[in-house]
Design goal:
There is one protein chain. By secondary structure, the chain is an all-alpha fold. The protein has one domain. The chain contains 13 helices and no strands. The chain is globular, with a radius of gyration of 26 Å. The protein starts with 10 loop residues before the first helix and ends with a helix.
């Protein structure tokens, strides 16, 4: 553990150390995100393909009644039996396409819910992994997931409370929503690093944010901007692939989702790394966390072990 690492950081230093941690732990961070994002991407492809497939297999004639009238008008040489056979085939195809489309809609709803749950877990695991890297400890992907899993409901509950609070704040002329967002930005790091409950983590985050809202806003904005810059090329490439492969629904959706998922996987660790570094920076400034870690690094081996267990 390098005690010199624990010092107050400027916004530029936070971003610089974010990318250094990202580079040094790239494989582990990407693996943590991929465990969640890849299955979600597969479900998304299946759901979207089912919806689009169901729509595109529906007759373009305006419906069953219009189709029957058109057939009777244009098919004077067909027998009544042939017409009924054609209509029965149309009805079966219509029913099949509707079933596929409904399954796609249900699959989309389920996928969205799983994506929300997965993002909550993933953010917690990334926070734990980045925190350990910052503190000079090693932790594997599986170990990080096992550590965070018992806290999943706490993280989910905190996420719901924060979302509702921020939403209500935006209804009150926007500004309160922005303030609430900044207040509770450190909630996940507090829950993961200090083993707090949802309400405790929110209170802890608000206490750390007091007097530092401008710095938190700048870090969040810059991280968001970086993620957008990373994601835009993948999004553009995905849209181009859809146009180029428009003749094949499955391939078009698959290529588009693959590119978007790659962008998400690459960008996701950045926000978690920046937030946990900002969290420790605020603790150093407010609580002398750097002196605490220095004392532990100079203490006995037992003290070092205790520090690792605590954090």
């Amino acid at each position: 553990m390098d005690a010199g690492t624990f010092e107050p950081m400027s916004i530029g230093q936070i971003l610089d150390r974010t990318f250094k941690l990202y580079k040094d732990n790239f494989i582990r961070f990407i693996a943590i995100v991929a465990v969640i994002q890849v299955p979600i991407a597969i479900l998304t492809v299946l759901s979207i393909s089912a919806i689009r497939g169901g729509i595109e297999t529906r007759p373009a004639t305006g419906g069953y009644a219009d189709f029957r009238e058109q057939m009777e008008r244009e098919s004077q040489n067909m027998s009544a039996e042939d017409i009924e056979t054609r209509l029965a085939e149309l009805g079966e195809g219509q029913e099949g396409s509707d079933t596929v489309r409904i399954m796609g809609v249900v699959g989309t709803v389920v996928t969205v819910l799983l994506a929300i749950l997965g993002a909550t877990l993933m953010q917690g695991v990334l926070t734990k992994s980045v925190s350990e890297a910052y503190l000079g400890n090693e932790i594997g992907v599986g170990e990080a997931y096992r550590f965070v899993w018992p806290k999943f409901l706490t993280l989910l509950g905190a996420g719901i409370l924060i979302t509702l609070t921020v939403f209500c704040g935006y209804l009150l002329c926007v500004v309160p929503g922005v303030i609430f967002t900044l207040w509770f930005a450190m909630t996940t790091p507090a829950i993961v690093a200090e083993d707090m409950k949802a309400s405790q983590g929110m209170s802890r985050s608000k206490a750390l944010a007091k007097g530092n809202l401008g710095k938190i806003f700048c870090v969040l904005f810059l991280v968001w901007l970086i993620q957008v810059i990373i994601g835009v090329p993948f999004s553009i490439a995905g849209n181009l692939s859809v146009r180029m492969l428009s003749g094949n629904i499955w391939l078009a959706v698959f290529s588009s989702q693959l590119l978007q998922t790659l962008g998400q996987v690459i960008a996701a660790p950045i926000s978690a790394a920046a937030l946990i570094l900002l969290y420790y920076d605020l603790r150093i400034r407010k609580e002398g966390f750097d002196l605490e870690m220095l004392a532990r690094s100079m203490g006995s081996e037992q003290g070092v072990d205790y520090g690792r267990q605590q954090y």
